[in-house]
Design goal:
About 15% of the residues have low confidence. The termini are close together. The protein is α/β, with parallel strands linked by helices. The protein has a 5-stranded mixed β-sheet with strand order 3-2-1-4-9, with helices on both faces. It has a domain of 213 residues: 2-Layer Sandwich (Nucleotidyltransferase, domain 5), CATH 3.30.420.40. The longest helix has 50 residues.
């Protein structure tokens, strides 16, 4: 089979594109592109026609790169018109599998299969009560959703030839770059603007997927409410927060008292150690967003001895710790307000698969997507899920030497976590 080489991820807030070349040692990055999609919530000054054409305009900007234009590409869809479902039935002859899966899909897919594109993947055969069983994942996508994306991509200058779903492209990206041990379970969480894609990989052959209707837009709304900003300002502040603490950014809001809803942290995976901090308060904690001058200190003396100098250094270290704690508290307050429901949905999903003995535990969580770059989000997920959590950059495992000179230093490191789905699509095979 030949690797497709080009993946196009049309999200809610941006279009991402990745072109790869298969090498003897893995993959080399040939080109990467990203273009924002102007949206009504954050660009109210735009006309309805301009907003309707925004996804096409973003695609056209990316298609100016010859690495993408008119090249065969894979694309993906997600959301409520995508229905992935697990299936299991007694082992049957291979020639009867497809008919059996279609019959099973008719029972569990929430819309008419006559209006759907249908595909499936088989897991390794298992045993249940001493008898062989066949397990797998069947996916139905409403044809209107497929047709809409196909026409959009063709109009934007692309040649779409392979359809995938976001969650499976996400899993493919991780399996191809990082790999998963036979007895290991990894949860991938791609936090988009409106949807979060969750892929749970157990070993190299079993993938369980779900789209959750919550994402980075909730974070923008929380910043808007807490800081008294309109949504465009809040979205700008969210993006800037990766470089400047929330309460030091210009424009609107002087802070205020923010109360975090308490609760006991639930762990998944038995004795797995949690990286990051645990919730500070089991009941409720009041977070106060302080201006920098309120946390400053002054010295009272014209000269300092060596001992005093050491004391001053210690005070400075203490102050730095105070500032760091203040930053974490401010970010954490926003994250709790914005992503509390998302955390609950992820916790419920983990419980479902563990309690049904579909997976033994969740060993680690890897975050990606634009919102995953918000400060302290990995520590927040670790503390709430009870599972070691890190930001994941799929570009870290690619050979980027051929294109790194085209971009500013660290640009690909910053961009990589946004590109997980596009990277997985580019790794699809024909």
């Amino acid at each position: 089979m030949a690797t497709l080489a080009v993946g196009i991820d049309v999200g809610t807030s941006s279009v991402k594109a990745v072109a790869l070349k298969r090498t003897s040692s893995g993959y080399a990055l040939k080109s990467v592109g990203q273009a924002d999609i102007r949206r009504a919530e954050y660009h109210p000054e735009e006309s309805p026609q301009s907003l309707a054409e925004a996804p096409l305009r973003a695609l056209e900007r990316i298609s100016q790169d010859s690495a993408f234009s008119r090249k065969p590409c894979a694309f993906s869809v997600s959301g409520p018109r995508v229905a992935p479902r697990l299936f299991k039935f007694p082992a049957i002859p291979k020639g009867e599998v497809e008919q059996a899966i279609r019959f099973e899909a008719e029972q569990i897919i929430p819309f008419d299969l006559a209006q759907a594109a249908l595909d499936f993947v088989m897991f390794d055969e298992g045993m249940e009560e001493g008898k062989p069983v066949m397990e797998g994942l069947v996916v139905a996508v409403h044809k209107e959703e497929v047709d809409k994306q196909y026409v959009l991509l063709k109009s934007g200058g692309f040649d779409p030839v392979v359809l995938d779903i976001d969650t499976l492209a996400l899993a493919n990206s991780y399996l191809e770059t990082e790999g998963v041990a036979d007895r290991e379970t990894v949860a991938l969480i791609n936090i988009g603007a409106r949807f979060t894609n969750l892929s749970i990989i157990h070993g190299s052959r079993r993938v369980f997927v779900r789209d959750i209707a919550s994402g980075g837009d909730m974070l923008s709304r929380a910043i808007s409410e807490i800081y008294g900003l309109d949504l465009p300002q809040a979205e700008k502040r969210k993006r800037e927060a990766a470089y400047t603490p929330l309460d030091e950014l210009e424009g609107g809001g002087g802070g205020g008292d923010v109360t975090e809803a308490g609760g006991e942290t639930e762990g998944f995976g038995g004795d797995a150690d949690t990286e990051g901090f645990q919730p500070v308060d089991e009941g409720g904690e009041e977070y106060v967003l302080l201006d920098s001058d309120e946390t400053g200190f002054t010295t009272g003396g014209d000269t300092m001895t060596g001992e005093e100098d050491q004391g001053f250094a210690a005070s400075g270290e203490t102050q730095n710790n105070m500032n760091a704690a203040q930053r974490i508290s401010a970010n954490r307050a926003v994250l709790v307000d914005a992503l509390g429901d998302l955390i609950s949905e992820i916790q419920d999903t983990f419980k479902y698969y563990i309690n049904r003995r579909i997976v033994p535990r969740i060993d680690k969580v890897r975050l990606c997507g634009g919102t995953a770059k918000f400060p302290d989000v990995d520590e927040f997920f670790a503390s709430q899920l009870g599972v070691p959590t890190q930001l994941w950059n799929p570009f870290a495992r690619l050979d980027v030497g051929g294109v790194s000179g085209k971009f500013p230093p660290n640009f690909l490191d910053e961009l990589g976590p946004l590109m997980a789905i596009a990277t997985g699509l580019a790794m699809r095979q024909l």
